[in-house]
UniProtKB/TrEMBL annotation:
InterPro entries linked to this entry: PilZ_domain
Protein known as: PilZ domain-containing protein
Stretches assigned to the PilZ domain: 144-226
GO molecular function, one term: cyclic-di-GMP binding
Protein species of origin: Vibrio maritimus
Amino acid sequence: MQQTEILSIAERLISAYHAEDFDQVLNQVTEGESASTKLLVKMELNRLMAPCYKRIDLRGRVSTNCHEYQLDGLAHWLDDRAFNSYHKLTRKYGGYTEGVWELLVDKKTLSNLGDEQRNANSGDLTDPQSPYAATPINLGYDLKRKECRLKVESQVSITLENGETVIGLSVDLSSSGAKFKVPGTFDYDLGQVISVTFDELAETSQLKEITKPIEYRVLGVDGLHGISPVKYLRTLRLTRTNAVELVVDKMLNTESKKVRHDNQDRITRARTRGFEHTYLKHACNLPLFFSGNDLKVALLTENNQDIWRYWHDERNQQSLASLFSNQRMDLLVKAGIKGCSNVLYTFTHEHNGMKLFYSMMMPEADRQERQLFWHVGGRRASWRAFRLSVFELSTDDMLTISKHYSELVGHDEKLTHFGILQEISDDKSASDYLFTEKPRLPASTLNQFRHPRNVKTQPRGCTLMPNLVEESPDISFLHHLLSARERMFESR
């Protein structure tokens, strides 16, 4: 038998090597072969499964960054894919053996890993070599930390609920949570409780508290399933201990380190805020602020003027407030619900020189009334469809914004909710609504959806552009409106 055939048989028997009936399985696989062949297969298996004490150093052999890992008592330098392969192979071979070492340092294996990386990035806009590469910006991310966070890479041992042990790295540490980098070989479920031992910090910090395992709950898993060689676990600490907090404080033991750490947060916050303000000035939707059921403030930009002007009647009075009746707001604003979203259909009708507004929200009508509304409104140039979303302001935003708004208007006023009016359809696509069957209902049925002519309140329009200012709001009030508007992106 040739050497390649012997290696193939040995590869098939690796999973059964530690089984009690290994000899029986070996005889079945090599049935009909000579005794010398069986001996060669067994010798090859013994060689592959022998414990290995050689270190792996891929620095300079792969194009990606390598990190140092303490695995099975040895220090290895591996990149992300080799790190993932190490865990996969040790599970297959039952530990760090000669077979694992050969596969990880084999030139063909390294070449295949490089091909995987190139194929994964080929044609990808996120390829570092792509001329279209761009750094993603998370809108609504406002970095206001109540506790110190430390970005440090230190090795940890993680025990999963099923008893498996994973070697990973800590990426971000704080007293209440942590972010860990782990191999993608294992399955990580949201909500599962993991036990983490900070091996490297225990050696360097000399704090007894950090040597004990700490339990965390997995709140998020970042990384594509079955594709990413490594994944990131976002966790919340469950064990009552101040060990991590002591380590963070010790590493930030000097004033210069604390200042540098705080400045990094300020730079991140300023950069994100800059992009958010730029985005808001070019936003097409209309942000709204309410006091209970009453519309008080609308934020105007260069691109949402059409929505604002749409709601002006023939007297040039703003009728947007009539869109939010008490009955409609009761559907959108409910106790205990942080946010609500619905579709709103509108059109206008000219009668005796008056411009009458009609609007209908999905839950406000039955099937036949909706069909009639679509058929009547869909034939008009004033037909519009909006998505209306309303969110409850947080307690801090409510107090801050209300304080500045009260100073602006000269009396006590409380802003409680934030809304977004986004146009999703106009008269160009109105014919799509005419495909439904027209019901046998009189047109007067739609009178219940007509807005009243007497508008009790006029919303204040605050513009972000100096050349289009309708009002002159206090700068601090406008800043806090923007801050609340930005934080709403997270809730969406």
